[in-house]
Design brief:
Low-confidence stretches: none
Shape: globular
Structural class: alpha/beta
Strand content: 25-35%
CATH class of the largest domain: Alpha Beta
Order of helices and strands: HHEHEHEEHEHEEEEHEE
Bound molecules: S-adenosylmethionine
Number of domains: 2
Distance between the termini: 28 Å
Length: about 250
């Protein structure tokens, strides 16, 4: 199993939250799925609780699991400040054992792309199966790969985000470039953080495994899942060639 290589990117959760503060589109989607399939709920790779905390605020029983100590500590602090109850677990989604089962396990916001090799993906799926109730559902949210983005000129920079620096150095401007390795299906992205008028940039690496639609369906199928729905976005529109997302709802076979 390949080691996880994203710790550095998530070492300061304040930047993660500021970068994504306006992104809330997926929360109503998960609330609808929880209404349909029930609770308790387990979120894999919950990060700063961007999705976990709004779900818990609805009184839903939710466990958030993540491998990053800084992300989890930040999530815990936010939940405590808001007075919401979440069970936080520090664990690797490729090898966890909790003493309960869930009606819904979800793996949001492209986090599955941090799993680069077959063994990692299959170990994670095995853990999910062991923690699903018989009638439970598993939801994966990952991009529908865009070849135009993967094949971009690596010498060019593209905008990612802008937000106020939490350390008061002005505006943080993030740009990126990428190189796609077609053999391993890893998109090797570099994020360049420019803090205000500081001359030097901080560079972080983000290596994302690309999952082609038929490949992801087959991986689920051959690991004992039946796909019930595949949506192309959070509005539950059907998955088509041009869909931005692969949003898969599945259950275990048999
Ligand atoms: C894109 S963030 C998603 C955070 C949150 N779910 C959200 O939607 O905002 C990806 C998260 O995956 C976590 N992660 C990466 N590899 C992991 C692993 N093997 N097990 C558990 N968490 C992992 C990172 O620590 C990070 O918090």
């Amino acid at each position: 199993m390949k080691p996880i290589d994203c710790e550095s990117l998530y070492r300061d959760p304040r930047h993660y939250d500021l970068q994504h503060k306006d992104f809330v589109d997926d929360i109503p989607f998960y609330l609808r799925q929880i209404k349909k399939y029930g609770e308790p709920v387990l979120e894999l790779a919950c990060g700063t609780g961007r999705v976990t905390i709004p779900i818990a605020e609805q009184g839903i029983k939710i466990t958030g699991l993540d491998i990053s100590t800084p992300m989890l500590s930040y999530a815990k602090r936010k939940a405590t400040m808001k007075g919401v109850d979440v069970e936080w677990v520090k664990a690797d989604c490729r090898g966890f054992k909790l003493d309960k089962k869930f009606k819904l396990v979800f793996f949001p916001f492209n986090s599955i792309a941090h799993l680069h090799d077959l063994e990692s993906i299959e170990s994670c799926f095995l853990c999910v199966k062991a923690h699903l109730e018989d009638d439970g559902r598993f939801i994966i949210d990952v991009f529908n790969p865009r070849l135009d983005i993967l094949m971009r000129d690596p010498s060019k920079r593209y905008p990612v985000a802008e937000y106020p620096d939490p350390d008061g150095r002005g505006t943080v401007v993030i740009t990126e470039n990428n190189t796609y390795d077609a053999a391993s299906q890893i998109n090797r992205i570099k994020w360049y953080y420019k803090m205000g008028d500081q001359a030097e940039e901080i560079v972080e690496e983000l290596n994302m495994r690309i999952f082609y639609p038929q490949e992801l369906d087959a991986l689920l199928h051959y690991n004992g899942f039946t796909i019930e729905s595949k949506f192309g976005n959070y509005d539950e529109s059907p998955f088509v060639s041009t869909s931005p997302k692969q949003l898969i709802v599945c259950r275990t076979c048999g």
